[in-house]
């Protein structure tokens, strides 16, 4: 089925190649190169004078799901974007757009969730805005959070450890990657996407899976204290496939994966097979993918395993010159090319 190229579709907001093309085609003109890491880097945040700034909007459906709600997502998503660059998140703004007729009881639940998650992450909500739109104009509630953070103290130590093997940039970015770096995922993938799907009305399956949504800033500080972290990113929309292709394209290096090493819960694997989806493309909200210098691999893993948010961490591959793009060795011994997805197969997961 052909798609009208003159209009915006759901694919353009799903975090894959369509969204990447839209940003390059239309929004990239806003880039003027200002800042140490700016809009031109096409990352989840930007940096000016050691201040990290990011913004995110949340349109998840349903707004309450197994293991969380739109409020928890709005904090974790923004906090994690700052943390993945080596920043220490400090404060968030909160913009809420509410549909006329929305229940106050539900709004109170969402705000409590925002408060609880902010305390968990150690950040403050310092400013906000509220708008109400006519019934039917939006789907219940939309939340925008912008976050500000500063260069983490642990980042300086981490960058210094990298100088033993390379000349890294001052932040966690794909240009720091070098052949031999190990790719670690901090836990099982696909949990959030499957939790969202199984919470939706009309979906013909039930899964005993809850969302993994969680702030990862304290975990990131712990592993940067160990050192050897070249880059980190959370595999949200587009999942592992989109994230690793982004790393490969920006670093101009290949990534070789072993499918058998990628942690996936049995319930998630069963749901993925039932729905005919690709686990590599499913979004997550409480996992990080980390590129680690091989000299620090064991120490970083031990630190992750000691934390509840990293207890299922595993090395899933490495950076290499021997392949182009992202290639995965399958469980049956073959090779599979992992391309950038068109978009996340589960729309509106965040």
UniProtKB/TrEMBL annotation:
Residue span(s) of domain PurM-like N-terminal: 48-149
Domain of life (superkingdom): Archaea
CDD domains per UniProt: HypE (cd02197)
GO biological process: protein maturation
InterPro entries on file: HypE (IPR011854), PurM-like_C_dom (IPR010918), PurM-like_C_sf (IPR036676), PurM-like_N (IPR016188), PurM-like_N_sf (IPR036921)
All copies of domain PurM-like C-terminal, residue ranges: 178-326
Similarity-based family: Belongs to the HypE family.
Protein name: Hydrogenase expression/formation protein HypE
Organism: Acidianus brierleyi
């Amino acid at each position: 089925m052909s798609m009208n190229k003159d209009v915006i579709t759901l694919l353009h907001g799903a975090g894959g190649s369509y969204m990447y093309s839209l940003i390059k085609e239309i929004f990239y003109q806003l880039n003027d190169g200002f800042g140490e890491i700016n809009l031109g880097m096409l990352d989840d945040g930007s940096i000016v004078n050691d201040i990290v700034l990011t913004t995110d909007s949340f349109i998840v459906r349903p707004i309450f799901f197994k293991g969380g709600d739109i409020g928890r997502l709005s904090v974790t998503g923004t906090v994690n974007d700052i943390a993945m660059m080596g920043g220490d998140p400090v404060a968030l703004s909160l913009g809420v757009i509410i549909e006329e007729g929305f229940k106050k009881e539900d709004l109170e639940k969402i705000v409590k969730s925002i408060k609880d998650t902010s305390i968990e992450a150690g950040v403050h909500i310092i400013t906000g805005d509220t708008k109400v739109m006519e019934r039917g104009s939006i789907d219940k509630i939309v939340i925008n959070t912008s976050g500000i953070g500063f260069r983490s103290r642990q980042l300086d130590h981490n960058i210094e450890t990298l100088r033993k093997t390379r000349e890294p940039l001052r932040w966690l970015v794909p240009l720091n990657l070098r052949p031999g770096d190990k790719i670690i995922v901090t836990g099982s993938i696909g949990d959030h996407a499957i939790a969202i799907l199984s919470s939706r009305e009309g979906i013909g399956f039930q899964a005993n899976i809850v969302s993994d949504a969680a702030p990862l800033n304290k975990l990131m500080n712990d592993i940067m204290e160990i050192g050897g972290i070249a880059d980190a990113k959370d595999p949200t929309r587009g999942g592992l496939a989109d994230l690793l292709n982004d790393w490969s394209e920006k670093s101009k290096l290949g990534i070789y994966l072993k499918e058998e090493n990628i942690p996936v819960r049995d319930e998630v694997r069963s749901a993925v097979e039932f729905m005919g989806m690709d686990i590599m493309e499913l979004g997550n909200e409480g996992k990080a993918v980390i590129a680690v210098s091989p000299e620090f691999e064991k120490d970083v893993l031990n630190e992750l395993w000691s934390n509840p948010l990293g207890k299922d961490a595993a090395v899933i591959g490495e950076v290499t010159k021997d392949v182009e793009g992202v290639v995965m060795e399958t469980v049956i011994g073959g090779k599979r090319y992992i391309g950038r997805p068109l978009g996340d197969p589960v729309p509106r997961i965040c």
